From TrEMBL:
It comes from Pseudomonas xantholysinigenes. This is Thiamine-phosphate synthase. 2-[(2R,5Z)-2-carboxy-4-methylthiazol-5(2H)-ylidene]ethyl phosphate binds at S132, V133, T134, G162. InterPro entries: Aldolase_TIM, ThiamineP_synth_sf, ThiamineP_synth_TenI, TMP_synthase. Binds 1 Mg(2+) ion per subunit.
Amino acid sequence: MTLRGLYAITDSQLLAGRFLSHVEAALEGGVCLLQYRDKSDDAARRLREAEALLRLCERYGTQLLINDDAELAARLGVGVHLGQTDGPLTPARALLGRQAIIGSTCHASLELAQQAASEGASYVAFGRFFNSVTKPGAPAANVDLMEQARAQVKLPIAVIGGITLDNAAPLVAHGADLLAVIHGLFGADSAQEVTRRARAFNALFVS
Ligand SMILES: Cc1ncc(COP(=O)(O)OP(=O)(O)O)c(N)n1
Ligand SMILES: Cc1nc(C(=O)O)sc1CCOP(=O)(O)O
Ligand SMILES: [Mg+2]
């Protein structure tokens, strides 16, 4: 499967009251990967919401990943995104199997990306590239990193952090495969605007 295009990530606060309608609107516009990101410890709600997202993803042919939680990913038979403090990659790969998509946060570090590749990651994620409303304190990354990453890491590259339609094009031009976006996609006031933004993010990959 080619990992290239929009990588939509949910945010439980931002999507409160419009969770499934905004996610479906994004899928309508085209989403390569969808990540369920919920930082609460409400296990029952997390399971319910992740199951609902999986049903939607199956209808639209989109791959679902769970943020942080390899056990929940295994329960649903989907992928997982792991940060540097979310547990090691190797056991997650063993748990989820060879086909599962597993992503790894690498901040601005080529060393972390090489390690993730050697431990079986499916893609590496660099960020934060811009000011992020969602995660203002995330370590900063710079576009100069992309060229070295392309040369040294033979995996799809996801970029994240404050990405909007106004600033995303240079990241794609520098070799990003996946634009991972929360606020720049789901911060829209209407479902129609979410769909329009999703289409416009994907259009950046058509050369
Ligand atoms: C695609 C993608 N890239 C990076 C992250 C951040 O992961 P992490 O550092 O574990 O931070 P949290 O998202 O868990 O707060 C991500 N989720 N997705
Ligand atoms: C979850 C996350 N991780 C980041 C990192 O740099 O690792 S930045 C970030 C927030 C992404 O949301 P938005 O598109 O609203 O900025
Ligand atoms: Mg995490």
